[in-house]
Amino acid sequence: MKQINFKNISEFRKMLGKSLPDGDWYIITQQMINDFANATLDKQWIHIDEERAKKESPFKKTVAHGFMSVAMISKMLDNAFKIKSLKMGLNYGMNKVRFPNPVLVNSELRMLSSIKEIENLGVSGIKVTFNCIIEIKGQEKPACVVEFIAALFE
Known about the structure:
Blueprint: E1 4-6, H1 9-12, E2 26-27, H2 30-40, H3 45-48, H4 50-56, H5 66-71, H6 73-80, E3 81-83, E4 88-98, E5 108-121, E6 125-136, E7 144-153
Parallel strand pairs: 1-3
Antiparallel strand pairs: 2-5, 4-7, 5-6, 6-7
């Protein structure tokens, strides 16, 4: 993926209604799932118990947490674009989060995104709403569909 670079927020505003570059593929390993389980204290067997998942899960494999896909959005957006004048960015929130398809261990994910809305935030910032789709390689239905909101400050 080729990252798009912007000099400042003013230049970035021209992206309203446009798509960002398609993201790179990330393999979701069992170690990543285990690390997420430890960080969130969500250690449900379907995520971390590989042997039980082989026997009892309808997927016959462990499944990543839905919120793990959401947690990767900040990194995926960071890879898609850069505003050189930014001093900081913050996660602001989400709208309409859905998990239409489970992410099985060793699946590959990437993000497709576009800029839905840009609002002023204080004197030196903007609030950006991104339409984000987290695709699973080889699957018709995505892992996650969400409107992700970030606050960006110069």
